[in-house]
Amino acid sequence: MFGIGMPELIIIMVIALIVIGPQKLPELAKSLGKGLAEFKRATDDFKQGIEAETRLQDEKERLAKVVEEPVAAQHQEAAAADPYKTEAAEPHKAEAAEPHKAEAAEKKA
Q1: Where are the stretches annotated Disordered (predicted)?
Q2: N or C: which end of the chain has fewer CB within 10 A?
Q3: What is the torsional sign of CA 34, 35, 36, 38?
Q4: Could you tell me the residue range of the domain that residue 29 belongs to?
Q5: Is residue 40, in this structure, part of any structural domain at all?
Q6: Is residue 52 in some structural domain?
Q7: Is there a domain that residue 1 lies in?
C-alpha cells in the first residue's frame, strides 16, 4: 500500500486525531472514503470505455478483412477468366469508354 507500513499508518492517524480533533475525524474519514469511491468509479468507467472502443475497433478491422477477402477473390477470378477483357476486371473503365465508342460510330456514319 504505497510503501506505508502499520507503524507509519498509526503515526499518521495519531497526528490526524490531534490536528483535526475527535469530533471532525469521523466526518473527514467518511468524506475521504466517498471521494475515493467516486474516483474509483470514474476510473473504472473510463477503463471500460477504452476497452469498449478497443473491442469495437478490432471488430471493425476483422469485418473489413472478412469483406475484402471475397471481393479480392472475385476480382482475381474475373481477371484469370479473361485477362484481356477490361470490362470484367475494371468495369469503371469500360463505362468511361462507352461515350467514346458512340462518338466513333457517329463519325464513321
Answers
A1: 70-109
A2: C
A3: positive
A4: 6-108
A5: yes
A6: yes
A7: no
pLDDT tens string, the chain, 109 residues long: the values are 467 788 898 898 889 888 888 888 888 889 989 999 999 999 999 999 999 999 999 999 998 888 777 777 777 777 777 656 555 445 555 555 555 555 666 666 5
Extract the C-alpha cell encoding 100. Answer: 467514346
The three cell numbers of residue 77 are 477470378
Which position has the grid cell 468509479? 41
Spatial CB neighbours of 89, under 8 Å, sequence gap ≥ 6: 75, 78, 79, 83
Q: Does the reported pTM lie above 0.90? A: no
- Tell me the C-alpha distance between 95 and 90, whole Å: 9
Task: Return the residue matching grid coordinates 470514474.
Answer: 42
What's the confidence (pLDDT) of residue 36? 92
Domains contained in the chain, number: 1
- Is 36 within the bounds of a domain? yes
